[in-house]
Amino acid sequence: MTSQDAPVRHSCHLADLTLSYVERHADLRGTGPTLLFAHATGFHARIWDEVIAALPAVHSICVDLRGHGHSTGGPFTDWFDLGRDISAFIDRLDLTNITCVGHSLGGHILAQATIAHPDRVKGLILIDPVIMAPEIYAMAESLFPKGTQHPAAQRKRNFTSVQEMVDRFKDRSPYSLFTPTALETYCTHGLIEHDGALTLACAPEVEASSYMSPMTGAPIHDHLHTITCPVVVLRADTMDLASLGDFTRSPTWPGLAGAVTNGTDIHRPNLSHFMPMQAPDFVAETVSKAIALAPAT
């Protein structure tokens, strides 16, 4: 690893929170595309390490979403709040010629950012972005009754070591699907020191709040037609109502790629919702191809 390959952590101060992010190849900013990565619920910016290691040298930024990793902010009730965070982040850093790469919650958020910044975003890669079918959103109240708590709120919060966390998860689905490197990275950077103990960087109540509020993402359907840059949608086999919440399967609407102006649908039934951690080389290959497709500035 050269000094330019090494991740450098920065902070971006916004109106009501601070977003932490990791930058690589800052020397290449302005000479080509900037890759902007956003992770899934409960994860963090460094979860992209294995994907980025398989890419050619390119300017990249991986952000810790609100309440995740080293970013501030607590539980939230609206996915569009996180979209506004990232839109403000893009403005504050004055990012241009962006190719957005988002997984799960991060995909939904970067789709929002693309809608808000059509002049800045030149390509969008959505990895199971939890943009669900319209009929699923219509069932919001029955699927996510008000006043209920997601089981993630009861997650084990404190660990004695990274190895304890690895050992706890390595044989459990979906973590058992991860590459060994991805699992190690998740655990290493998914814990922070707090009051002399190692605790989850994404507090259980933050993770639970995200899982209880995906239906707030429904309004994105009103704006998908405005996305004109090239969009690639990666998705696994679609979950049904009986398997709702089984995120080894895909929550993504199969019609998503057809709802944008220039979309490509890539269905991989042999993979799960957790593609970046399960098949980082495949994700990196898809990103590399998409960069070549993004129009020049």
TrEMBL record:
InterPro entries (UniProt xref): AB_hydrolase_1, AB_hydrolase_fold, AB_hydrolase_sf, Epox_hydrolase-like
GO molecular function terms noted in the UniProt entry: hydrolase activity
Keywords: Hydrolase
Domain AB hydrolase-1 positions: 35-285
Name under which the protein is recorded: Alpha/beta hydrolase
